[in-house]
Amino acid sequence: MAEPAVMLDGISKQYGSFLAADNISITVPKGELFGFLGPNGAGKTTTIKMMTGLLEPTDGTIEIGGVDMWKHPLQAKKKIAYVPDHPTLYEKLTGWEYVRFIASVFGIPARQAEEKAVRLFDLFSLGSRADELIEGYSHGMKQKMALTGALLHDPDVIFLDEPTVGLDPKSAKTLKDLLRQLCDDGTTVFVSTHILEIAQEMCDRIGIIRDGKIAALGTMEELRGESSASLEDIFLELTGDEEQQELIRELAGGRSDAP
Amino acid sequence: MIRTLLGVQARMLKHTMETNKTGTNVSHAIIGFVVILFLLFALNIVTSLPTAYDTELVELLFSYVFMMVLGLILLMGVPQVFKHLYASRDLTFLFTLPIKVSHIFWVKYIQSFLNIPAALFIVTFLPGLAYGLHAGVHGFFYPALLVVTLAIPALGVAAAYFINMGLVHIIPAKRANELMTVMSAVSGVLVYGMFQLPNLLTEPGPGSETALPTGLLPEMPAWLPMSWGASALTSAMAGDVSFLLPTVGLAVAAAGLSFAASALVEKGFRSGWIQLNEGKNKKKKAGEKGRRFKVGSPVAEIGWKEWRYMKRDIREWLIFMPFVFLFIFMGFGYTAGSSSVAAFRELDPVLSWTAVQAAALFIYAFFNGSLSASFVAREAGSTWMLHVLPLTGVQIACGKLWMSWLIPFLPVSVLQMTAGILLGWPVSFFLLGLVLSALISPALSALGIWTGAIGGKYNPSNPQNRLQFAPSLLMLVLSYVYVLLTLIPVLLVVVPAESAGLFEKVAGGGIIGGSASAAASLLQLKLTNSALVTAGSILVFLFLTIGTCVAFLYLAGRRIEQGIQVSMPDSKE
Ligand SMILES: Nc1ncnc2c1ncn2[C@@H]1O[C@H](COP(=O)(O)OP(=O)(O)O)[C@@H](O)[C@H]1O
Ligand SMILES: [Mg+2]
Q: Which parts of the chain span the membrane according to its record (chain B) (predicted)?
C-alpha cells in the first residue's frame, strides 16, 4: 500500500502541566477528506499546529507522505499548505503581491502561478480586490486569500483550521465543494471544525477529539452506530442538549420579568 | 467609576508582570536600577555642591533642569499619550460600557502621569530636597519644591494631551494611522526648537566660556513656565514671600491646562478615536496594476516584501528620525559656523577621509542593527507563515539581511561621496571608503537580524521600538565592539610604521597603555616587514567582517528555525 498522506503516531503536547494533546494517533490515506471534530478548547488547533511544523510535539512522530515533519521539515513543508483559523497574512502586501511571494517561495513558474491565481480569485470573487492591500480585507476575504495562497502550489495535503468560521454561506458552500473536488482529484484534506453538520455533510471520515484525546474515529455511520456514553456526551455538547435549551428559555424569560 | 477602572488597570498590570517572561521583568528591573543609580548619582553631586550659592546660577540651573523635564515629557509623552488615548486595545470595549467618557479620560490621564512624568518628579524632587537640606535653605523652599516639581510634569502631560487632541482633528482620517509618526516627529521638533530657543535669542560673545553663567548657557525668557518654577524656588530659598506668585501660578496653570484638556475630551477623545478607527478601513490601492506578474528567488522576494512594508507605512519611517535630526544638526552647524566648515575643507584629505569614515561607521553601528531587528520583529502575527513555508532559516535571514543592509548603505554612501567631492578626495579614497563600508556594515545588519530573532517585540502602535530592552543593549554594545575590532587591522594598514615611537611613549599598564604597547610592537613589526603585516591585516579584516556576518546569519537562521517569538506587549506596555 502507498504511504499514508498524514500519519500521526502517539502525538502529545504539554503546556506546563497541562496536557493539550494526549497520545493522538491518526492515519489519513491519500485523497481523503478528514474531519477533526471537537468542542472549543479540545486541542484541534494545537494538533494542527504540530502537524504543520508550528509547534513541536512533546512526544510522538508526524509524517507527511512518509516524510517526518520534524526531522526533514523543508521536504515535508513543500507538500503541505495550512490555513489557520485567524490568518494574519502580510497585511501591507496586495493580494497579487502575496501570491507572487508564495509563488516565489515554492518556485512556481510565473505563468502557471498567474493562471492559477486568476482562477482561484474568480472562484472566491476576489478578483476585483486583488490589487488592494490585504489589511483592508474583511476577515472572510483574508481567509479566502489565505486559501488562494494555500492552493497555489498544488499541495499534497491541506490543513484547514475552522475554515468556515468567517465565511458567508455562499463562500462556505464554494469552499465545501472545492474541498470535495480537491479530494476527488487526489489531494488530502484535513479540516478541523466544532460544527457537527459540517463534519457530517462533507467529510469521509471523522476523528472526534475532546480534552486532548481522540474519543472516536471513523465514518459518520460508524460513529452513529457506536453507542458509547462518552460519544453521546460529545454529540450533545456539539449540538446543545435539552438542559441547555431549558436554561436558554429561562434566561430569556427572566429578562422579560425584570423591571 | 474612576476607581473601578484604575483598580482593573492595576490588576491587569499585576497579572502582566506575573505572566511576563523573566527576560521582560529583568529588563524592567534593569531600568529601575538605572533610575535608582541615576538618583544616587544626582544626590551625590547635589550634596557635594558648595553650600554657598550664586542665586543667578541656581536659578539658571533650575530653569534648565525644568526645561529638560518638560522636553523629556513632550518627547516621550506625546507618543505615549497617543497610545493611551487612541491606541489602547481596551477602548473598543470601554466605549461600549456605560462609562462616562471623561472618566475614561481621567484614568488614561493618571496612567500617563504614572509613567515617565512620575519618574521625572522623583528624580527632580528628591535631589532638590537633598540640596535644600544640604544648603540649609529657608523653609519656604520645601513646599515650593513639591508644588513646582509636581506642576512641571503635570504641565507637560497636559500639553501632550492638548497636542494629541488637536492633531487628531487636523490630520485627515485616512492618514490617521500614521498619526503616531507625526506625533513623534512633532514632539521631536518641538523639543529641538525648545532647546534652540535660548540659543537663538542670545548670541554668545567672544571668549564667552569665562563669562559664566550667561555665556555657557543662555538665559531663558522669563515668561516660560520653566523660569517661573526656577524663580519660585530661588525666592523660596531666600525666604522671600514673593515665591508664592510663581508657585501658585504654575500650579494653577498645570491644573487649568489639565481641566481644559478634560473639557475637550468629549470632542477630541471620543470623536478622534472614532475617526482614527474609521480611517483604518479606508481602502488603499497600491498601484501595481497592469504590471507583469513575476516570480523571483525566495531570498530576493523576502527582501522586497520588507521593502513594501516599510514603504507603505509611514510609521516605519520613524526609524529614520535619528538621520533627520543628524541632518538638522549638521545644517545648523553649517549655517552657524561656515568658517569652521571652510577650515574643514583646508584639512588634509587623509584626515577628512578618516573623520568621514568614522562618522559613517558610527552611523552603521548605531543604525543597522536596530533596522534589521525591526525587519524580524515585524513578522509578529505572521510568523506562522515563515514556519509553514518550505524556507530554511538562513534563507529567511538572508532575505531580510540584504534589504535591511541596503537601506542604510545607499544614503550613507551617497553622503560619503558628497562629502568626498566637497573635501576634494582623490579617487582611490572614494573606492576605499566604499569598500570599507561595504565590508564592515553587513555584519552589523546580520547582528541585528539575530537580535531581532532572540528578542523581537512588536507593538503596532509603537513600531519604532521593536526590541526588548536587554537584547537591544546587547546589540548596541556588540555593534561598537565589532566596529572597533575591525578598525584595528585597518589602522595597521593605514597608520605609517614610523609612528611606532608615538605609541611607545604611551605604552604601559592598563587598557590604554597595554593596547598602545601592542600597537607599538605591531608597528615595529611593520617597520621591518611591511608586506607581511599589511597582508596579515587584510586577511584578519576579511575574516572578521565576513566571518562575523556569516556567523550571525547562521545563528539567526538556526534561531528562526527553532521558532522565533515576537513578544507583543499590550499597547499599554
Ligand atoms: N500556549 C498555550 N499555553 C497554554 N495552554 C494552551 C496554549 N494554547 C492552547 N492552550 C490550551 O490547550 C487547549 C486546546 O486549545 P486549542 O488547541 O486551541 O483548542 P481548539 O482549537 O480545539 O479550540 C485549551 O484548553 C487551551 O487553553
Ligand atoms: Mg482552534
A: 26-46, 58-79, 114-134, 140-164, 176-195, 243-265, 317-336, 356-377, 384-407, 427-452, 473-495, 531-555
Give me the domain span that covers residue A53: 1-79+157-164+184-259
What mean pLDDT is reported for chain A?
Answer: 85
Out of A12, A14, A46, give the residue to mutate to test ligand 1, the one with the largest number of ligand atoms within 8 Å of its CB.
A46
Rounded distance, CA B277 to CA B173, Å? 9
CA distance readout (Å), A13 to A27, A58, B563: 18, 5, 16
A41 lines ligand 1 (CB under 6 A): yes
pTM value?
0.66
Domain residue limits, chain B: 49-278, 347-573
Residue A228 pLDDT grade (very low, low, confident, very high; cuts 50, 70, 90):
low
Q: Please indicate, yes or no, whether residues A23 and A150 belong to a single structural domain of this protein.
A: no
- The number of distinct structural domains making up chain A is 2
Q: Is the pLDDT of residue B553 over 90?
A: yes
Looking at the fold, whether A97 and A140 belong to one and the same domain comes out as yes
Q: Is A179 a domain residue?
A: no
Position with higher pLDDT, A3 vs B439: B439
Residues near A74 by beta carbon (within 8 Å), at least 6 away in sequence: B390, B391, B392
Which residues, 6+ apart, have CB-to-CB distance to B180 below 8 Å? B79, B82, B83, B87, B315, B318, B461, B462, B463
Same domain, A194 and A254: yes
- Choose among A104, A110, A132: nearest Cβ to B301: A104
The CA angle B321-B473-B40, to the nearest 5 degrees, is 100
Of A5-9, A40-44, B336-340, which range is least confident?
B336-340
First vs last Cα of chain A: how many Å apart? 70
Per the domain annotation, does A59 fall within a domain? yes
Same domain, A61 and A102: no
Q: What mean pLDDT do residues B344-348 have?
A: 64
Rounded CA separation A68/B51 (Å): 77
How many CB contacts within 8 angstroms connect chain A with chain B?
102
Convert the pLDDT of each residue in B133-181 to its tens digit: 888 888 888 888 898 888 988 988 888 888 777 766 666 555 555 666 6
Task: Note whether residue A123 is domain-resident.
Answer: yes
Q: Is residue A192 domain-resident?
A: yes
For residue A222, give the CATH number of its domain: 3.40.50.300
Q: Which DSSP state fits A17?
A: T
Q: Tens of pLDDT along A162-209?
A: 988 878 888 888 888 889 988 998 999 999 998 888 888 888 899 988
Phi and psi of B297, rounded to 5°? -75, 150
A71 C-alpha to ligand 2 centroid (Å) = 26
> Which among B295, B298, B561 has the least Cβ separation from residue A109?
B295
A112 and A137 belong to one structural domain: yes
Domain finish residue from A100, A134, A154: A154
pLDDT tens sequence across B467-500: 777 888 888 889 999 998 998 888 888 777 777 7
**Closest residue to A110, CB basis, from B284, B295, B380:** B295
Q: What share of chain B in percent tops pLDDT 90? A: 10
Residue in chain B nearest A69 by alpha carbon? B388
- Could you say which ligand is closest to the alpha carbon of residue A55? 1
Is the ipTM reported for this complex over the cut 0.90?
A: no
Lowest-pLDDT choice from A8-12, B444-448, B497-501:
B497-501
| Whole-angstrom distance, CA of residue B279 vs CA of residue B176 | 6
Is the Cβ pair B294, A90 closer than 8 Å?
Answer: no
